[in-house]
Structure formats: C-alpha cells, structure tokens
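Q: Given only this backbone (137 positions), what sequence would you predict?
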C-alpha cells in the first residue's frame, strides 16, 4: 500500500516538472559525454596497426598449382590466434617474429600439414607480433 502511494507521488511530481520546463530546455542539444576516448570500427579507413584489424596472407601451392595456403590473424594485447587453411599437398609454414620485453625478438614457427585447416595461438604478453611470413622456418 505504501509503495503505490509513493509511486503515485513520484509520478505526479515528474509530470509537474515536465510541465514547468521552458521551450529553450526542450530544444537544447544533448550534452556530449565527457570522454576523451574515440572508438573506430575496423575497416578500410583504419590503419593496419589497430588491434581490431584482421590481416590475411595467402600463397600459391607448388602442388597442385591452382590451390592456395591461406592464413588470417588479428594481433591482440596478450596473444594472437593464427587461423590457417592448407589446400596444398605438401607442408607449409608460418614464420612469426615476436617481440617480448626482456627477451628481445623471438621467432616462432607453425608447421601446417597438407590438406589441413585449424588455428594456433601464440602468446606474447606485454609484447607484440612483428613480421609474419609464409616461408620455410
């Protein structure tokens, strides 16, 4: 019973306040949020170094010639997951240079078996992924 009386009182008070509002208040544009962070979505207009961008690499197979070895990845803060699809009839490799603070540059190598697809996560906490090549390690 008490809660319904309180709700009616609050509802009537809010209605009275909106009736007293001036037309200038109604036409005022909404205030911008006090934030200094600008968020952009990944796409053609963003630079390649943003963590939201996905990078793709591909290489033509030596056997069969009409097939390809494809890799995609998106560098993160602590790790990077490499997604691969090897349509070739031979092994293919992903060569990754990783900079880790305290140890310097480290080279990681992912060997992908023939006719295989999957993913592999490389951890680089506090570091970053440098150059990625589709070359023999």
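A: Predicted residues:
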């Amino acid at each position: 019973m008490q809660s319904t009386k309180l709700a009616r009182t609050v509802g009537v008070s809010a209605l009275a306040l909106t009736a007293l509002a001036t037309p200038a208040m109604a036409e005022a544009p909404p205030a911008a949020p006090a934030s200094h962070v600008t968020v952009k979505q990944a796409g053609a207009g963003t630079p390649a170094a943003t963590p939201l961008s996905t990078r793709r690499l591909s290489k033509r197979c030596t056997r069969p010639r009409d097939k390809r070895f494809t890799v995609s990845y998106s560098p993160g803060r602590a790790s990077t997951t490499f997604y691969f699809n090897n349509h070739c009839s031979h092994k293919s490799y992903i060569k990754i240079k990783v900079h880790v603070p305290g140890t310097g540059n480290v080279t990681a190598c992912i060997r992908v078996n023939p006719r295989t697809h999957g993913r592999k996560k490389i951890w680089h906490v506090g570091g970053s992924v440098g150059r990625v090549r589709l070359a023999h390690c």
